[in-house]
Amino acid sequence: MPTTASSPKHSTALEQGGAPTHALGAVTASDSTLRRFLHGLPGVDAVGLEARAASLGTRSIKTTAKAYAIDLAISMVDLTTLEGADTPGKVRALGVKAVHPDPTDRTTPATAAVCVYPDMVATAKEAVAGSGVKVASVATAFPAGRAALGVKLADVRDAVAAGADEIDMVIDRGAFLAGHYLKVYDEIVAVKEASGAARLKVIFETGELSTYDNIRRASWLGMLAGADFIKTSTGKVAVNATPSNTLLMLEAVRDFRAQTGVQVGVKPAGGIRTTKDAVKFLVLVNETAGADWLDNHWFRFGASSLLNDLLMQRQKLATGRYSGPDYVTVD
Question: Stretch 42-60: mean pLDDT, rounded?
Fold first, then answer.
């Protein structure tokens, strides 16, 4: 059964003060060197990228492999609630579900994490105490990221102080699209330092970056700055995770590790709702980045409704009957 890795195979090395150290450190020496590097990355063949993503999405798997894939996908879910109407009771219930997704079958793996706003971190932490389920907190003025750096860093420190194991930050898309790459880089480095021991997921909001070339540049920028994960989206815009943008990010983490020895995780978020969708993404991971990423230390699904479908399909494989949505809790 899939389990959370106790330690990474690769990790991001940080200098004193939080600046990342790796084989590509020199490219961030100035705005001009960073711009030259990012714009020197190979252009993305959009037609080829989408064709490959579509082709991998047609792969079929055997029943035994499907059972494994479902359990693996459950173990990779960041069970998420990010609504203005979130209450302590809702977050506690979500935490209980993360620890025991199917109370009638204790062989069901726990999810990787619960993901909440900073003011709900302490409540979530209590709900999952002793389970190994992580608590992730969005921060940095999520989802728009429109705030001064000091406000963003205070947001991060509050979440960490409350017990967050992981921080999901949003980049300043306006600065990125204006070409102010070093500003975005410096902000990620500062957030990484403020996160302390918490792992940092950097959200690009790919639906707002307009082009695949920009997604590739943002992926490399985030990794250069010390991201532990690169994440597609907030789930709050029209276009979120897609097979194509996730494939592009998987290629980026694969190539980054080849050049630096540093392994970075990937988290598609938003719009992944069915078991069929999840299996397609797992095939993308295996065929693009490789088996080293088929672990919840390196790959996550940002989702809320996905877990219910995974549980229903798991029950169907076990019993031969489709139990339907009334047999899983509504989050």
Answer: 94
**pTM, full prediction:** 0.91
Annotated active-site residue in 134, 152, 231, 280? 231
> Tokens at residue 320, please?
């031969």
Task: Copy the structure tokens of residue 193.
Answer: 């330092």
Judge if the upstream peptide bond of residue 143 is cis by omega within 30 degrees of 0: yes
Strand partners, 7: none
Please indicate whether residue 90 is annotated as part of the active site. Answer: no
Instruction: Round the CA-based radius of gyration of the chain to a whole number and report it.
Output: 19
Residue in 225, 228, 222, 193 with CA at minimum distance from that of residue 205? 222
Q: Which residue in the list 152, 192, 201, 267 is annotated as catalytic?
A: 267
Alpha-carbon 66 to chain mean position? 22
**Sign of the CA dihedral 43, 44, 46, 48?**
positive
- At residue 156, φ and ψ (nearest 5 deg) are -65, -50
Which residue is catalytic, options 78, 102, 155, 168? 168
Instruction: Say if residue 299's pLDDT is above 90.
Output: yes
Annotated catalytic, 231?
yes
